[in-house]
Design goal:
This protein is an alpha/beta fold. The protein has 2 domains: 176 residues, Rossmann fold (3-Layer(aba) Sandwich); 171 residues, Rossmann fold (3-Layer(aba) Sandwich), CATH 3.40.50.2000. It has 14 helices and 13 strands. The strands form 2 sheets. Strands 3-2-1-4-5-6-7 form a 7-stranded parallel β-sheet, with helices on both faces. Strands 10-9-8-11-12-13 form a 6-stranded parallel β-sheet, with helices on both faces. α6 links the parallel β6 and β7. The chain is globular, with a radius of gyration of 21 Å.
Length: 368
């Protein structure tokens, strides 16, 4: 019965944490016992979601100190984990070394984004990845773009295991379900809604959505923009919305346990990020039948090969406004949305991803 420790930063409702939660039944069926370690300054708002599912959660804030190293080694030895699965870019080599010292038989690292480090940082990360390989750590990329970026930028060969979403939960609504859902959220029949899902990190480029909304308003359209996800502490996006006089059009919903109601209600999903690793929210929106407007950036442009009807823009507000206007004028095609969702289920199903990782947990060999 493999005992697995997932090492995370602050435990938030982001890709790794959500996928761990959804894959849990398949891993438990395979005999796995799961633990999660939060290494952020605070444990994180999503920790309860993991512990409620039976995952044993630990908190050990990272510090570059002998005390932290000793505490983590003691934790690893006390529980005698069969697998340590590292999900962080920060301190990944440190965690791999400490797991190796503690005698952990299998160490895995998943790389969750297309990191665009340059110059000295690129060199140091290349060396760190080389050192991780020398420890026999199996490194995994979550998408084709991440795998390619690791190989070309860092000379780091990785295995490929696609991310996944809850393919039973995220599905296109019936016309009745969509109408009832919009009514519950207070929308009129003809109100257009743009939605984004994700936190307010600068890389998400949500400011461009608000600026684009101001340009769309000049064209005579008044769509709503719903931001679902944690806001930044300085409320930059909220301040920008007020500056443009968009208070009544922009609503910040904060972190939501279930984003499906917002995807079902929306006419358009937008993600203008400068880069992504995979974009789990993109997959959830696609599975839910929502029209997408994405930036033509690493981790997002690859979806064009699978879903040709996605509208792509650059990351500027002006081009984003063009793409959003185009999407908002498109009629909703329920049959096409259902076909699209069905085509994605096999490739990005929870069961597929969970079984691929379970096989890796049970038999890890370094990449040739």
């Amino acid at each position: 019965m493999p005992k697995i420790l997932h090492i995370l930063s602050e435990i938030r409702s982001s890709g790794a944490e959500v996928m761990i939660k959804t894959a849990l039944p398949y891993w438990q069926e395979g005999g796995a016992v799961l633990h999660a370690l939060g290494t952020g300054k605070v444990l994180g708002s999503y920790a309860g979601n993991l512990s409620d599912r039976g995952i044993i959660v630990h908190h050990l804030p990272f510090a570059n100190s002998q005390k932290f190293y000793s505490q983590l080694i003691r934790l690893l030895r006390a529980h005698q984990f069969d697998v340590v699965h590292i999900h962080t870019e920060h301190a990944a080599l440190t965690y791999a070394c400490l797991a190796h010292i503690a005698g952990t038989p299998r160490i895995i690292r998943t790389i969750h984004s297309s990191f665009l480090f340059k110059r000295l940082t690129r060199l140091t990360r290349t060396v760190r990845r080389w050192a991780v390989r020398q420890l026999g750590v199996a490194q995994v990329s979550i998408s084709d773009s991440v795998k390619q970026n690791e190989q070309t930028r860092f000379r780091n060969p990785t295995r490929l295991i696609y991310n996944w979403c809850d393919d039973l939960h995220f599905r296109p609504p019936s016309m009745q379900e969509r109408s009832e859902n919009r009514n519950r959220l207070g929308l009129s029949e003809h109100q257009k809604v743009i939605v984004s899902v994700g936190n307010c990190a600068p890389v998400k480029n949500h400011e461009a959505v608000i600026q684009a909304l101001a340009l769309i308003k000049k064209n005579g359209l008044l769509p709503l923009y719903w931001h679902v996800g944690e806001e930044d502490s300085e409320n930059r996006e909220g301040n920008l919305a007020r500056e443009f006089g968009l208070d009544t059009q922009v609503r910040f919903w904060g972190r939501q346990e279930d984003v499906r109601p917002f995807l079902w209600a929306a006419d358009t999903f937008v993600m203008p990020s400068f880069y992504e690793g995979f974009g789990l929210a993109v997959l959830e929106a696609l599975e839910s039948g929502t029209q997408l407007v994405l930036a033509r950036s690493p981790g997002l442009k690859e979806w064009a090969d699978l879903i040709p009807e996605i509208i792509y823009t650059d990351t500027s507000a002006a081009d984003l406004a063009r793409g959003l206007l185009q999407a908002l004028k498109m009629p909703k095609n329920h049959e096409q949305a259902a076909q699209r969702s069905a085509s994605l289920r096999t490739l990005f199903s929870v069961e597929r991803g969970a079984q691929e990782y379970l096989a890796l947990y049970n038999s890890v060999k370094n990449v040739d």
